[in-house]
Specification:
Layout (H helix, E strand, L loop, with lengths): L2 E7 L1 H4 L2 H13 L3 E6 L4 H8 L5 E3 L2 E3 L2 H25 L4 E4 L7 E5 L18 E6 L1 H8 L4 E4 L2 E3 L5 E3 L2 H12 L4 E8 L17 E2 L1 H9 L7 H12 L5 E6 L3 H5 L5 E3 L2
Parallel strand pairs: 1-2, 1-11, 2-8, 5-8, 11-13, 12-14
Antiparallel strand pairs: 3-4, 6-7, 9-10, 13-14
Helix pairs in contact: 3-4, 6-8
């Protein structure tokens, strides 16, 4: 099987022009087949604030009303996606930017939150999508032409509705779907050096985590809220055929790929 890297870039890197430029240079230098998944950083939040549209977050996930959906579509699928693609081209990496709607790449359904145990209505996430299918044929055809795919976290339901989908989930679902075709390594790269014992100490990296250790870390509240969805996605990927998941610092992309940095997720 050919090796495929599915690499998710964190929002804090997207927000920093110098760090983004350095990351893109490193990503362009990665040999072989590769997919880059990005979110929107603070740009969508800033634009929403400028327009007077209040933003809500629950467990690190954005509540997406109709106005916010327009904003994230403009920011994620437009400004950020095309900027990343243009910078990759400038670094000699042929790339194409896609949303889930393009080429029917990723279909999703509008999230429906179940009622609480007390029978109260569940959380209304608005226009948030949970992934149903990934068009592996489309992605494979692009990858085999040596085109790097840049995925924005906007999906569609097949009936004309765009949906905002968590970028970590996009990375996980793409990695899972393509693991039947390629030897897939999934890398979550962001501003921290890995999963940390102390969120304020970047040197406190946990080198590896298995399911038992993960349960203990959650019970003792060592892991901060924003990391839990990322780790849930990582374990779901490992359990669905992805060969390796690594979480670490974007500036250390090459070391992450060589297994010399970050946190490795073990089955």
């Amino acid at each position: 099987m050919k090796k495929l890297y599915v690499i998710k870039i964190g929002g804090n890197i997207i927000d920093n022009e110098a760090k983004l430029a350095a990351f893109i240079k490193d990503f362009a230098a990665v040999e072989g087949l590769k997919i880059l998944v990005h979110g929107g950083g603070k740009l969508a939040t800033k634009l929403a604030a400028d327009l007077g549209i209040e933003q809500q977050m629950i467990d690190g996930r954005r509540i997406t009303d109709a106005a916010t959906l327009k904003i994230v579509t403009m920011v994620y699928a437009g400004a950020i996606n095309k900027n990343v693609v243009a910078q990759l081209q400038a670094n000699g990496c042929n790339a194409i930017g896609l949303t889930g709607a393009d080429g029917n790449a990723i279909k999703a359904h509008k999230r429906v939150s179940p009622p609480t145990p007390k029978g109260e209505p569940g959380i209304d996430y608005g226009f948030v999508g949970d992934v149903d299918t990934v068009n592996t044929g489309l992605l494979q055809s692009l990858l085999e032409q040596n085109i790097a795919v840049v995925l924005a976290p906007i999906t569609h339901d097949g009936n004309g509705l765009l949906l905002n989908t968590n970028a970590d989930t996009i990375a996980q679902e793409a990695a899972k779907a393509l693991s039947s075709i390629y030897d897939v390594e999934l890398i979550y790269s962001f501003e921290k050096s890995g999963v940390l014992l102390d969120a304020e100490d970047d040197a406190s990296v946990i080198p590896s985590i298995n399911p038992t250790a993960y349960s203990e870390l959650k019970e003792t509240k060592v892991i901060f809220a924003g990391m839990i969805p990322k780790l849930d996605n990582a374990f779901a990927a490992i359990n669905s055929g992805v060969s390796k998941v690594i979480i670490g610092k974007a500036e250390q992309l090459q070391q992450l790929i060589r297994g010399e940095a970050g946190t490795t997720i073990n089955p």
